[in-house]
Amino acid sequence: MTVHSFVLTDADANQQFERFDLRPTDGVTLAGGDDWSVAATTLHGGLSEGVSVVDICNGPLSLAILPTRGMGVWRGRFRELPLEWKSPVARPVHPSFVNLHDRNGLGWLNGFNELMCRCGLAFNGPPGQDGSTAVTLHGRIANLPAHRVELHVDTDGPGVIELVGTIEEASMFGPRLQLVSRYRFRIGHPSCEIIDEVTNLGGQPTELSLLYHINIGRPFLDDGGSNAVAFRELAPRDSRSAEGVETHALYGPPQAGFVEQAYYYRPATDAQGWTMALLHNRMRTAGFAVLARSEQLPCFTVWKNTQSEAEGYVTGLEPGVNFPNFRAFERGQKRLPVLAPNQTYRCEQRWEFADNAADVHELLSGVEQVQATCRPIVHLTPQPGWSPAGTPSA
User: Fold this and answer.
1) What does DSSP assign to residue 250?
2) Which one of 72, 126, 178, 372 has the largest count of C-beta atoms within 10 Å of its C-beta?
3) Which tens digit of pLDDT belongs to each residue from 87-98?
């Protein structure tokens, strides 16, 4: 086994590749195929000035990862299918242009563009005053750059490409959390793995909030498309979501002024500890599946936001440590893990894709197999302990 390693960014050494390319013609042979590549570049112009992008292709799948924006995923492609959504924020925004306190704590939305962004680490959910702390929408991690980025290419078996980014979310007199994020691509496989480890580098115990905001648009989302989530229980977040709970899995056409809906799930789990959710289009010819370790990510949210195309026609499949409620509420429900000094919390997920009816059927069968482990319960109204709307005392 040979591992080729490259350091793309090292803030401590004042090192940053403006451009980096690695392909089979550069002398690295991977048995799984010869159509893989890695390309790193820096965007210039407008609000994207200075944003680093690492584009990794394993053959059928490519993802553009943004070390400058919390190691989020900008967009991608699976064979001929685009992996993206059309946000009103048309391009990646450098964090220096995002004021999280703008719009009464909703400034996070000014940079909301990615296929996947993390929400956390000290807090996520809506803004507000949590004791002496003013928390902003969905936290800071999506707008923090990695101070170290490494690329590893393993020639064992079919070959594996792994990108590793390290970010610190820290402040004086506040939490000091470190995220080490790994994206792992097996050459020729229609999938990728995402493995995150969050460590408390501080001297006192601290809470962890973490949700993966995976945002999917066309061609997976369309009028008549649906999601399939393996779950034990489901509850609408609020009264608006309750209006559509009986058709929670179905999607309609773009509708100007559509008011978002969100559904909270307690996932079902297979014998290996994995849960699974799938979004597919009406014709079942495009499928995007999210698999997660439910012990690590015990909460799952589906966000339905089928506004007009110009406003952002999108849905979210969102595994999380917690539900995206206000931090004080989640603390009261004991859903926020407390990390001791030097303790690490690990989160594992995998994305799988399909671009034909047979493969979509196979993914759907995977969800059904997990669902067969229990009988799902659907609550028609917000539930106590699930969200503030279901908790009269909140």
Assistant:
1) B
2) 72
3) 999 999 999 999
